[in-house]
Automatic annotation (TrEMBL):
Its cofactor is NAD(+). It comes from Algoriphagus ornithinivorans. It catalyses: dTDP-alpha-D-glucose = dTDP-4-dehydro-6-deoxy-alpha-D-glucose + H2O. One of its GO terms (biological process) is nucleotide-sugar metabolic process. CDD domains: dTDP_GD_SDR_e (cd05246). Belongs to the NAD(P)-dependent epimerase/dehydratase family. dTDP-glucose dehydratase subfamily. It holds the Pfam family GDP_Man_Dehyd. This is dTDP-glucose 4,6-dehydratase. Signal peptide: none annotated. The keyword NAD applies. The lineage of its organism: Bacteria, Pseudomonadati, Bacteroidota, Cytophagia, Cytophagales. Coiled coil: none annotated. Its EC number is 4.2.1.46. Keywords: Lyase, NAD. InterPro entries: dTDP_Gluc_deHydtase, NAD(P)-bd_dom, NAD(P)-bd_dom_sf.
Length: 349
C-alpha cells in the first residue's frame, strides 16, 4: 500500500463522496474512514464501497485523543483529509459549544495525533484540512472571496471553522507540519442530509409540505456539485503546494428564493404536476439570526495552478440531484425516519 489515508467525516455528505472517489480511483491506497456517526453520519452513503478490500471504517469521535492515537498506529496512517465537523449553521446558533468541541477541540486533537505519529518526518506526510468559504464573512458590496481575504466569520459555525483553519496553519508554522487548506462554497448533490436547503426542499416538494424560506430569500450563495468538490479535494491532495490555501467554488451564484422556485418548477415537471403547484408551498419565515447576505468565491487559483474546474453546469447538476432523491426513496425514508442510525449496528456488529 503506497498510502494509508485517514478521511474523517467520511460518512457525511461530502466525506462520503471523497471516500468513494479515493477507494475506487486508488486501489493501492488504504482508505480509513473515521467518523463518530453523529446524526449527520450515514453509512448507507457508502454502500458502493463498504466491501472494497482497501476500505476500513473506524467509529471514533475526534474529541477522543486516545482513540485517535490508536487509529494512527493501527493503520499506520500516512496522510489525513479532515472533513469531520458539525456543519449546520442553525444548529450552531442553538448550541455553539458543540461546534467548539468538534470543530476546534477535535481538530486540535487530530493535529496532535498526526504530529505524534509523524514525529521526525512531519515533512513527509500531509494534513489536509477541508474548510468553508463562510470563514470570510459576508459580501455586501460585490466582489469575491480570494485566498487572501481576511477572515471575518459571522456565525458560531463559521467562527469554529475559522479557528480550526488557524490551528492548522499554526501547526504548519510552529511544528513545520505539511498542511494544506481548502475553502469551498455551498455543495449540493446526492447524500445531503435533508436539513439543508436543497434536499429539504426536494423532500418537502415531493411530500407537498411547506417550503420554509428565510426572510425574503434574498441571500446569495455560490453552489458547487458535491462530486466536483470531491474531485477538487483529490486534485489539492495530490498536487496542492504545502502551506497553501485553495478556494473552491462554482462561479454559480443564486438567491435562495430563485433556487427554491427552480426546484418547484423542475419537480412539477418531473412529478407530472400542474405548473405552479409546488410554488404555492413556499412559506417565508423569520430570518436566521445574523444571516450572511452573500458568499461568492473566486476559484481562479486552483484553476490556474492545479487545472481544476467544475465539470457540471448547475442545470445539469440539479437535475441529477433531484432524480437521485426521487429514485433513492429508501435512503430518504431511512434518513427522515431515523432508521439509517441502525445501519452501523446491523452491519458492523
Ligand atoms: N456542505 C457544504 O456545503 C460545505 C461547504 C464547504 C465546506 N464544508 C466542510 O466540509 C466538511 C464536510 O461537510 P458536510 O456537509 O459533508 O458535513 P456533514 O454534516 O454532512 O458530515 C459531517 C460528518 O462528520 C461526522 N462528525 C461530526 N462530528 C464528529 C466528531 N466529533 N468526530 C468524528 N466525526 C464527526 C458526522 O458523523 C458526519 O459524518 C465540513 O468540515 C464542512 O465544514 C461543507
Amino acid at each position: 500500500m503506497s498510502k494509508s489515508i485517514l478521511i474523517t467525516g467520511g460518512a457525511g455528505f461530502i466525506g462520503s463522496h471523497v471516500v468513494q472517489l479515493f477507494v475506487e480511483k486508488y486501489p493501492s491506497y488504504k482508505i480509513v474512514n473515521l467518523d463518530a456517526l453523529t446524526y449527520a453520519g450515514n453509512l448507507e452513503n457508502l454502500k458502493a464501497v463498504e466491501n472494497a478490500s482497501n476500505y476500513y471504517f473506524e467509529k471514533v469521535d475526534i474529541q477522543d485523543a486516545l482513540e485517535l492515537e490508536k487509529v494512527f498506529e493501527k493503520h499506520a496512517i500516512t496522510d489525513v483529509i479532515h472533513l469531520a465537523a458539525e456543519s449546520h449553521v442553525d444548529r450552531s446558533i442553538s448550541d455553539p459549544l458543540a461546534f467548539v468541541k468538534t470543530n476546534v477541540f477535535g481538530t486540535v486533537n487530530l493535529l496532535n495525533a498526526a504530529k505524534k505519529a509523524w514525529e521526525g518526518e512531519l515533512d513527509q506526510h500531509l494534513f489536509y484540512h477541508v474548510s468553508t468559504d463562510e470563514v470570510y464573512g459576508s459580501l455586501h458590496d460585490g466582489g469575491f472571496f480570494l485566498e487572501t481575504t481576511p477572515y471575518d466569520p459571522q456565525s458560531p459555525y463559521s467562527a469554529s471553522k475559522a479557528a480550526s483553519d488557524h490551528f492548522v496553519r499554526a501547526y504548519a508554522n510552529t511544528y513545520k507540519m505539511k498542511t494544506v487548506v481548502s475553502n469551498c462554497s455551498n455543495n449540493y448533490g446526492p447524500n445531503h442530509f435533508p436539513e439543508k436547503l436543497i434536499p429539504l426542499c426536494i423532500n418537502n416538494i415531493k411530500n407537498m409540505k411547506p417550503l420554509p424560506v428565510y426572510g425574503k430569500g434574498e441571500n446569495v450563495r455560490d453552489w458547487l456539485f458535491v462530486k466536483d468538490h470531491a474531485r477538487a479535494i483529490d486534485t489539492v491532495f495530490h498536487q496542492g503546494k504545502a502551506g497553501e490555501t485553495y478556494n473552491i467554488g462554482g462561479f454559480n451564484e443564486w438567491k435562495n428564493i430563485d433556487i427554491v422556485r427552480l426546484l418547484c418548477k423542475k419537480m412539477d415537471e418531473k412529478l407530472g404536476r400542474e405548473e405552479g403547484t409546488s410554488e404555492k408551498l413556499i412559506t417565508f419565515v423569520k430570518d436566521r439570526a445574523g444571516h450572511d447576505l452573500r458568499y461568492a468565491i473566486d476559484s481562479s487559483k486552483i484553476k490556474n495552478e492545479l487545472g481544476w474546474e467544475p465539470s457540471l453546469q448547475f442545470d445539469e447538476g440539479i437535475d441529477i440531484t433531484i432524480d437521485w432523491y426521487l429514485v433513492n426513496e429508501e435512503w430518504l425514508d431511512h434518513v427522515t425516519s431515523g432508521a439509517y442510525q441502525d445501519y452501523y449496528q446491523q452491519h458492523y456488529h
